[in-house]
Design brief:
Oligomer: single chain
Largest sheet: 8 strands, antiparallel, barrel
CATH class: Mainly Beta
Number of domains: 1
Distance between the termini: 35 Å
Structural class: mainly beta
Helix content: 10-25%
Number of strands: 8
Length: 146
């Protein structure tokens, strides 16, 4: 009789861990261009020393897989976009959102202030908003399993 209880406990633990993991902003996300609706890349978002960081893991656009940052200045000039850090030192606020001063767009070679949060209606959607002064643009990124 102990085995059915143990099996139930293990099953409950696995379901709970999957649910908790699905509620996190950390992991891999497919970026979707808010203008064209097409996938652009995979961004890996991770936590380091309590802050949010993210880098380009893969470019999905055809013909751009080996893209370099042509418009960039300084040390990023002509560097590969894959592996490039695009989210730097985001901090979590009391609302559960992450905010920071550097969301980097390698295509435009521009940095933006940012706000990132999970869609409350769908935890497999990440809302990513970049700010330039009082103007902002929001994209919805989709969770990539695995």
């Amino acid at each position: 009789m102990i085995y059915p209880r143990l099996s139930l406990l293990i099953l409950l633990f696995l379901c709970t861990s999957t649910f908790v993991n699905a509620q996190s902003v950390f992991g891999k996300w497919k970026t979707i261009d808010d203008r064209t609706g097409k996938p652009k890349g995979i961004i890996h978002i991770y936590k380091k020393e309590g802050k949010m960081y993210g880098y380009v893991e893969e470019i999905l656009e055809e013909g751009k897989k080996d893209a370099v940052c042509i418009k960039c200045d300084g040390e990023l000039k002509d560097e590969p976009v894959v592996g490039m850090e695009i989210i730097t030192a985001g901090e979590k606020n009391e609302d559960g959102e992450w905010k920071g001063k550097r969301l980097f767009d390698p295509e435009q070679a521009m940095s933006f202030r940012f706000r990132i949060w999970l869609n409350p209606d769908d935890p497999n959607e990440l809302k990513v908003r970049g700010y330039l002064a009082f103007i902002y643009r929001t994209q919805t990124w989709l969770r990539v399993e695995g």
